[in-house]
Every structure is written in structure tokens, then in C-alpha cells.
UniProtKB/TrEMBL annotation, chain B:
Gene3D superfamilies per record: 3.10.20.30, [2Fe-2S]-binding domain
Domain of life per record: Bacteria
2Fe-2S ferredoxin-type domain segment(s): 1-77
Protein's UniProt keywords contain Iron-sulfur: yes
One Pfam family it belongs to: Fer2_2
Keyword annotations from UniProtKB, A to Z: 2Fe-2S, Iron, Iron-sulfur, Metal-binding, Oxidoreductase
Molecular function GO terms recorded: 2 iron, 2 sulfur cluster binding; metal ion binding; oxidoreductase activity
Name listed for the protein in its UniProt record: (2Fe-2S)-binding protein
Keyword Metal-binding: yes
CDD domains on file: fer2
Amino acid sequence: MSQQPVVFTRRSFLEGLNLSVGGLALGLVPTVSAEAAVPGVKSAPELRPNVFVHVAADGLVTIVCHRSEMGQGIRSSMPVVIADELGADMARVKVVQAVGDAVYGDQNTDGSSSIRGVFQELRRTGATARTMLVAAAAKRWKVKPAQCEAREHAVYLRDGQRSLGFGELVADAVKLPVPKAEAVQLRPLTELRRVGTELPLLDGPAYVTGKAVFGADVKLPGMLIAVVARPPVVGGRVVRFDATRALAVPGVKQVLELPAPHRPYLFQGWGGVAVLAENTWAAMRGRQALDIIWENGPNESYDSEKYRLALLESVRAPGKPARSVGDVDKALASAARVVEAEYYAPHLSHAPMEPPVALARVAGGVCEVWAPTQHPQAARTEAAKMAGLAEDKVTVNVTLLGGGFGRKSKADFVAEAVFLAKTAGVPVRVQWTREDDIRHDYYHSASAQKLSAGLDAQGKPTAWLHRTAFPAIRSTFSEDVTGPVARDLNQGVLDLALDIPNVRAEMGEALAKVRIGWLRSVNNIFHGYAVGSFMDELAHARGVDPRDNLLEVIGPARKVSVAELGVTTLPNYGAPVEAHPVDAGRLRRVIERVTEMSGWSERAKNGRTLGLAAHRSFLSYVGVVVSMTKDAVGKARVDEAWVVVDAGLVVNPDRVRAQMEGSIIFGMSLAMYGSITMKEGATEQSNFRDYRLVRIAEAPKAIHVDIVRSEEAPGGVGEPGVPPVAPAIVNALFALTGVRVRELPIIRTVPV
Amino acid sequence: MSIRVRVNGVEQELDVDPEMPLLWALRDVLGLTGTKYGCGQALCGACSVHLDGQVVRACVTPIRRADGREVTTIEGLSPDGGHPLQRAWVELGVPQCGFCQSGQLMCAAALLAKKPQPTDADIDQSLAGNLCRCGTYTRIRAAVKKAAGVPDSK
Amino acid sequence: MIRALPVLASVVLLAGAGGCRRQPDSDAARWESLPPVDARDLRPLDVFQRIEDPAQRSRALFLETSRVYLHPRCSNCHPDGDSPYQDSGETLHNPPVTRGPEDKGVVGMECTGCHQEKNLELARVPGAPNWHVAPRSMAWVGKSPRELCEQLKDPERNGGKTLAQLVEHNAHDALVGWGWAPGSGRQPAPGTQAQFGALVAAWVATGAQCPSEEARP
């Protein structure tokens, strides 16, 4: 993180276009480019100790949110951390959204990393500004800085006699050197006044009045809207096309072919033919009127049903070891009883409510992009490549995201917009239809797993063998990927606490035939499903209550060492194991609390059918219990759900609760209905008619969320709620119907 | 063909393809971007608006159907964001990504206009066409009831 | 590219419905004397003339028209509950809809909130004038041809129509007519509306007899 003051210029792209910016201050986008200031904007002295926070002479504090807002509430959370360190009054804080620029450090809003990854650094940005304001006040009062304190947007002398507002101190503070990181003292956590309290939703008013600016809501003069006919099979290409009928559609202006991608697919577009029109309707009608001959290419052979069988075959044979303790083969051979089960989970599509969309303008040697991107720096890199410009000539403005879930970390839709804008010579917005979104996604990986447990004569587990096979995300980025490697198993296999003397995890081969991407909680989805289900199967096989079995298999509260896990290193979501150990105690606690909350022990007496699962992911621990009932026509439904989350220190409890509530619904959709299948390389689903999501009537009557109060280092929040949901549902379904669902989605086996 | 339509109380005259869905007339022609495109097939409800007070999915409603009629979008639901539903939505922190919420609100507003004291079943039926991928459904139910002054037992 | 989804399930269903099954009664014997017909077609009126007995002819005519009434394009919106069906009739309408007090949906989910007066090609939403679900009293799903026949003659359960009005409705109503032009790759009802109307008229003219409980087309 830079400690040097950065010269900012203020540019207002949207204001000049009469766009309403409402509660979302997208209008003022600070950039680090050395561009001239907008004429007429007077530059008053401002304290700018770093790129995240600055204080104006009128006292207005501007805090930059460098992560993308996609529903997790980061714009309502992250700035509060900085403001609390600074001692600012949120009523006098303006939050602006960062453009894509490496000066902000990592901006990729995925991996549930926004708070956990940079909590301390963010605090330091606010603390640095505070240190300078306090120093300015101390100098003026001729006292030591330690005699002053910053709070409520002012610096107070501790005797309470004198105070100076932040604005009044700016002129002096800007003359001071920016202190080094070591010289900046963070406040004790107790002084972070709003962190951990009920915080308002910053963009709430904009969302409910229609003023919030999403990707498709930015308009430029002379802009055309493009709708693209993409090859039905990834890696396919256009053989020839006839645009005559498309060009005859009123409003259609141009028809352009996009470059076909080469393996590995990275963030390239799919290629295809774009229809550029004055409005979206004309572009859609124009696309319908295109006559295109496609060549599908080698992925035409992909049949996801055959692939499912191949993946299952793969886990029936030994694979490459990824985790090993003791001698599993011997323990299984000498076991009194072996419990085994195979699990399959299909491809999934992200399906954010806002389909991919991006607007680009390439003119005068610069490129500007407006996009709902989770990864503005990757978008900038792709845009620069497409525009043939250096990255410093490219500005990526980040709008609000109408959901992301990992889809919008990929910059393919930005690359399309930039290519078309450059080629057409006018600004172009690429609008994906829902069909485009479902058929041309970076799909969540299909997977097969086999779990085996050996039990001794007393029924105690003595061996645990977990085999997993799935095409890995790296296949999208590299040609030589033949399946998962050990670090792909970090998510729910390597970091699983087991009080079993002989443990091994193995990986099977799996070649990717579609673009594989990361979807909310990623490999934890299927690993959590299989492990969570198998724990329940084990309980029933042993005749032990599923909660007691789960606690026994996890073992006593302890920080599980790398040696006990049977790995040499643990990727651990990029965090040091010392700060974020695999903590069996924290996992036990969420299980104990969620079963207490849900009346687990009294479930038989109360006539309830409950299912339990718990999972560690993204350094957080989540336990879920769901209640299932059968409705009047015999369909099983989730009636009520309980979630306990231990995410360490929590900044914004209401948004954490919202993420857990959302995780239940997201997990229900994928568990009950979610499935993307391919025939002859093409995706069979197209829209919400055949890629079904949970609707309001299916939502549980209540989702109860409890957050473990903790001062541990923050863990992730956006994703960890998802993995335990599917197994909790499958386990409840077993309790309800006696049917064990080993293949997702559930609707293939049981009516839901 | 010229189409005359009153949008949020303002008379508008549009010279567009009469088959153009109302959604694109609102967004691309009139610049009212609060109404969202989510599926184009009346499956998700993100484009819900009122046509003479009735909820329609703007993505499948040809603009000619609105000729001579009154359209209300999220921008016209209240002058200042002060509709009881909008207030309840903010107070209960309903939105996550926010993309579907204008459609949810327009449906909920039509529901309350007809049934001022809705039950959970009423809410589930009237909002059955509005998908929310973030999963805000339980808060939507609570916020509709809060706006209606119906006690929430959960 | 928007691809049409094949409606395989309906094809299978129709193949079964179009074939001739052995029936235990004399109606069946009459029926079997009729020439076979493709699942997509209706037998022309004149082939029924070979059945001499008017009552038997009437019953055969009704069985033929029941292939239309009970076709998913028609019966899906004459459901046995509060929600219409879609596709081959095995799945409920998606998104979920309920009939509401006037069989036109509930507030916020009125039928005409999505369905226009004609089919929409790009959006795949079917449409026809006065799109609505049949009243509960007019439920057809799950009925045998005989039950359906008795129901159609009962003004309490046929929308208050005389037989003459029934003929007119079937022959000319635009919403009924949608069944033969459902759009977006949906399997249409067999034959044409004109053929159907003529068959219904002939059934009425022959005394509107109902087939036996076991009789199936």
C-alpha cells in the first residue's frame, strides 16, 4: 500500500451526461492518472495521505471503496472501518467507488476477501489521516499529540476545553509529512465505535428509488447497443454469416464479427457476430435475423452425462494423494465395517439477476469502460489488450453489480465491449441476454467424489478416504491442466478437521470441456455437500445421533496442525495458518449453537425433521440446520432454517445476517434444482424456465441467524454460508423420506 | 407509429416500433433505468411496472399496448422515496445487490393497493414472479408486512 | 441464437393418445372401424358417416373431440386445482400462478401481466385475447372422456352455455383457437379449429351422446 501522497484529479463522467447518481456517488471518480482537472473545478487544499481517504477543507471526508458492491454490502461496511479509525462522522463522509487501478492493491472482489484480506491495512489508511490531523491540532495547541483525541469529526484536547474540526485542520495537516506505517498507531478495537454495530445500508435509498446505477444504466452520446450471437459451443467459430436480414431491421446500424478465442480461454470473449443498433430491442431482433454457419470445434464431443459417468469411474480408482496420515489402506482392510458412498454434483451457472453488460468508448487514444465488474484491474488489462493501448490509457469505472457470484470477476464481456467500440468507432454497450448468460458462462465445475470410512468393532471410525475428481478452474487459464492439484482441495478436503488416525485424500483426472469458473464458495460447494452428507451417512450407519457423530469425528477442540491434517502446506485462502488455524473448537461451537437454537435434541418430540451440516471455508465456520416438511402434494420443502456463523470480528452484523439468509436461498437453489447439462458441447438450459431458482413461496418461513461474537481476525462472509446448506437439506430429506440423495440436484431423485 | 403514453404523470410521445417492449422504451428511449432487464421472457419480474395500476412485465409488453394509458415505474412510485414500502425496504435492509428490488417493490405496491393487510400467502402469491438471486425473500415478506402495519410473528 | 426447445414429452404423450386401443364395449368396435389417424390430425367428419347408428356416431364423434379437449394445449388451462399446467401437462405453470377470484390471476400476477393478445416470438410467451384460466367448475384435467362429456353438457360446469353456444365457442373463440397456433415449438392441438368445430357441431347434431366410462380415443 502506497504511503506517498497521490495527486488526484476529479473527473466527472456521469455528471456531464445528466445522469442521476443519487446515493451512489459514482459521479466523482478519483483517478491517479495525471490528467488535467476538469475546467471550473477549483482545487482547494485537501489532506490526501493515501489513495483511500482524504479530508477537504470544508470537513468533507471522502473514502474510496476499492472493492465492488454486488450485494454483500461492502460499500456500507468497508468505509465505516476507515471512518472509525479516523474518527469521522459518517454523515459527513462521502463514499466513492474506485476505478480499476493497482494503486489500490488487490481489487478482485472474490474469495470473500474484502474485509478479511485488508482489514488492518484499511484501518491504517484511516489512522494515517487521523495521525496527521491530530499532529496538526497538537502543533496548533502546542501540546503533545497524545493529549489529543480524534472523534466525531474533530480533534479534541483531552481536557475537553478545546476542539478543532477536521476541516479546520486540513490546511496545517497537508504541510506535514505522511507518517510511515510503523509510526501510525491503530486504535484499540473498543474505540472502533460503529464496527460491529447495526449500520445503515448506504445505497438503500438509491436501490429503492431506481436511482442506483448498474452496468446497463450508463448512457453515452452516440452509443450503440450490441447483442452478440455467440457460438453454441465454446471454442467454436463462425464459418460464414449473412447479415442482410439483420441489417434490414430498423435501428440496426452495423454487424461485426468478433475474434474467435484460442485456448486457453482466459478472459477472451466467445467470438461470434455482433449486431449493433440504436436500441436493445432492435439489436435483439437483428440478432434473431442473422444467418450464421457455425463450426463447433473439438468441444462438440462434450456430453455432460457421459462425463458424469467418467468422473464417477475416476473416483473408483486410486488417485494422486493430496493429504495423508497413517495407513488408510491397512486400516480399511482391517476394519470391522466399511461405509462407502459416491456423490455427484453437476455444472452450475451463476445467473446473477443482472446479466453481463459493459459499455466502452475508445477514442482519442484513451479507452473508458463502465462495467459491473468484480475485478476492475483484470477488466483494465483486457480492455487495454483489446484497445491496443497501454493500461494507463484505460479507465475502468465500476458500477454497482446486480449480483456477481464470481461471474463478473471474468472480463470477457468487457473485452467484447472494447473490441466493438474500437471497431465500430462509437461507444458500444454489450448487453447479454439471459440466454447468453446461461449458455456462455464460466461454469461451476461438475464433480464426483467417493468417501470411504472404516469402523472398528465398536463402531469407531479408524480410516477416512476421500477421492475427488473435477475439472479445475486452472484449465481456463492454462493448456496443461488434467485435473485438480492439491491446492484445489484446500476447499473442504485438506482443511477438514478429523479425529481419525488414518486419513487420505486423493485427486482423480478430469479434462475440462467447458470454461470452468468460480461460483460462490467454489469447490466447497461439492466438497461440503459430499463431506456433510457422508458425516450423516456415517452417523446412521453407526446408529449415533448425527450431531454427536459429527462432533466425535471432528474431535476435541484444538487447533489442527498441518502435520495432523497430513499436508505439507495448507493454501488456507491465502492467509497464514498461525493467524487462521484450522480450529476444531470453532467448528464445534457453531455445531453446538446451531443445534441448540434449532431444538435439535427435541426434534422428535416436536415432530420436526431436521438436517445438520457444518463447514469451514474462507477462514469462517458456519453451521446450518434446516427443517423439512412435505407439502399437500407430497413435495419436500425447507420449512425453516438456522445458521450460526463464526467469521471472527464482524464489521457489519446486519450484512452478515443478510449474507447468511441469502446463502440459505442460494444453497437451496443449487441443491434442489441447479443443473447445467451439455449435449454435443452446447448448454441445454437457456433461461429461468429451465435453470430454476428458488422463488419466494419456497423460501423458509424464517431463517434464524446467530453470529458468534469474536475478536479473532476477520474471516470471509459472502461465501461460507453456502457450503453447509446442500448437505443440511439432503440430510433433512433423508430424515423425512429415508431417501439418500447422492446426486445433485435433488429434484432428479425426489420431488421438491 | 407514434405512441402517446403518460409515464409517471408526464405525457410522452414516442416514435418507435410499436412492437418494442415497454421495457426498452422506458430504458433506451425515455432514460428511465430503474426498471431492469433480467430475462426478457416474463420469468423474473425485474421489469415489473404498473400499466393503469396493474402490474405488467415490461419486457413482454409491446409499447402499443400502453398507447393512451398510464405507466408508473419505480421512479414514479413516490415523489421522494417515501412510499411506505420504500421506507420499510430501507429500514429492514431488504436489498442486497438491489437489482431485482424495483420489480419487487412495484409488485408489492400493487398488492398493498388491493390488499392493505396481506398475509404471507398473499405476498407469496403476488410476488411469485419476482426472482431474487441474492435471496432476500424473508426480508421482503417482513418489509411488506411492516409497510402494511401487519405484525410479523417471526 | 434462440433455439426452440423440443417438446418431446408432448410428442410421446400424443403418440399414445393417437393410437387405437382395444375397448371392451361396442363403441370401441365402432371406433376401431375408423381409419387410423396421425396424432397431429383429427379424423375428417365424413369418416364418421360409416357409423350408422346416430347415437354410436355421436359417441365416436365425442371421443374424437376429446383428443382436443384433453390435449395439454387445452386442458393445461382447465386445471384440477388453482394453478394451470404447462408443457406436456406434467409441470405446473412457471412462474407459479394462482387463479385468483376471477380466474385471471392474483394482484401482481394477473394473466395479462405477461400474456398479450398474441404469441411473442422472442420472449416465447404465449398469448391470445382474454387469456385466463378456466373456472374451477370447468376443470378437465384428470377427467375421463365420459366425465368430460357430461360436464360439457351441464351449464353449471360448462360456463353456462347451451349446446349451440358450445359449438360456436369451440369453432370460433380466439383463445380456443390458440390451441392450434401455440408458437415457440409447442405441440399444437390435433387438427384445426375448423375441423374441431365441425366435429363438435356434428356431435351436438347427433344428440350429444356421451361415450362409456371406459371408452378412450
